[in-house]
Amino acid sequence: MKSALVTGVLGQDGAYLSKLLLEKGYKVYGFVARRSTPVDWRLQELGIDKDVERIEGDMTDLSSLVRALKESNADEVYNLAAQSFVGTSWNQPILTAYSTGIGALNALEAVRLVKPEAKYYQASTSEMFGGMPEHPLQSEETPFHPRSPYGVSKLFAHWMTRNYRESFGIFGCCGILFNHESPLRGIEFVTRKVTDAVARIKLGQQDKLYLGNIDAKRDWGFAGDYVEAMWKMLQHDTPDDYVVATGRTTTVRDMCKIAFDYVGLNYEDYVEIDPKFYRPAEVDLLLGDPKKAENVLGWKAKTTLEELMHMMVDADLRRVKQEMK
Ligand code: NDP
Ligand code: GDP
Fold first, then answer.
1. Ligand nearest to the CA of 106
2. Among 246, 300, 275, which Cα is nearest to 126's?
3. Tell me, what DSSP letter sits at residue 100?
4. N or C: which end of the chain has fewer CB within 10 A?
5. Quick check: is 307 catalytic?
6. CB of 31 within 8 A of CB of 65?
7. Rounded to the nearest whole angstrom, what is the distance from the C-alpha of residue 201 to the centroid of ligand 2?
8. In order along the chain (325 residues), what is the average pLDDT of each group of 10 residues?
């Protein structure tokens, strides 16, 4: 039986990846930070909260990662833990650098010291590209220009993973994932903020939805599809880096329209702009070229943005109705 250690296991991707690995017969160990109020609602929603064995630790504490790797003896390490919200990274840049940047280096060091033959996945991000106008389509060859402390921290982790591959022969892969969403997405991210508001407005619990820059464009996919790409990277013969995206970009405005249309409402009647949601530096356009992942890994996004938004609105309608009971 193969075993995997998943950091960030209580996050969106941690939940979907754990489900996938359990279905494939892995023993899954989840690396979980101590919180005064533990939140494992995502594992519960997927019905796997009893199946993931938890190991307590923090990405900023190398000793806890070393212990986790010894205890799990993992064949595959998926480093998904991060302070992952771009907006927060301007308010807490140092925490973001520690957990998102140094945290990945700690995980790599744990692999090097305890089990150098383990395969390592690094959760890199399209935010590293910064959406520069001279590169309207981003691939593995596109130069990086991160525009937030989050993007800068992720770029450090990305290059460290490449460096450990080149220096020590660690089987380290970076998945440069574009935005991916699901009913398990954190409420602070724009898609989930929209679908939660659509549900509340439809059910008479909310009047307006306040957003920032609705002209920004993102390449949005479904997290359930994207975790398959992570796993496929570690099953390939050689370690490498891959863009994972749908190849379609949509404005925040049009994404809102899809969600409001689904429940028969006109988004223009409800969406208002509040400049407090503008960012100090914006990533205007993300559009990924997933050809390499398609050709080498045989991976392709399956879920359309319409299907994704409908799935998320349905889930939020269900949750809000439950709350109202
Ligand atoms: P989430 O924010 O949902 O999950 C991140 C998890 O990491 C949370 O459970 C969080 O716990 C945990 N974590 C944060 N800091 C620490 C720490 N110091 N020690 C241990 N655990 C910690 O992110 P996603 O699941 O959406 O994303 C997974 C990874 O992929 C992240 O690294 C993200 O940056 C990256 N990524 C995500 C994209 C997306 O669109 N979703 C796109 C590209 C990359 P807690 O909440 O308790 O702090
Ligand atoms: P990101 O791409 O990782 O930053 O994912 P987000 O979902 O947080 O943001 C996606 C885009 O939506 C960014 O360009 C944001 O500026 C834009 N956006 C507009 N209004 C909002 C808002 O109210 N909240 C968030 N999170 N993003 C918003």
1. 1
2. 246
3. I
4. C
5. no
6. yes
7. 20
8. 98 98 98 93 98 98 98 98 98 98 98 98 98 97 98 99 98 98 98 98 98 98 99 98 98 98 98 98 98 98 98 98 96
For residue 42, the CA-to-ligand 1 centroid distance in Å is: 13
Q: Are strands 250-251 and 217-218 parallel, antiparallel or unpaired?
A: antiparallel
pTM strictly above 0.90: yes
How many residues are listed for the chain in this entry? 325
CB 106 within 8 A of CB 59: yes
Token pair 């891959």 in the structure block, residue: 242
Ligand found nearest the CA of 178: 1
The minimum-distance atom of ligand 2 relative to the CA of 125 is 3
Q: What is the fold, at CATH topology level, of the domain defined by 186-218+249-286+305-324?
A: UDP-galactose 4-epimerase; domain 1 (3.90.25)
Map out the domains of the chain as residue ranges: 3-180+220-244, 186-218+249-286+305-324
Q: What is the CATH number of domain 3-180+220-244?
A: 3.40.50.720
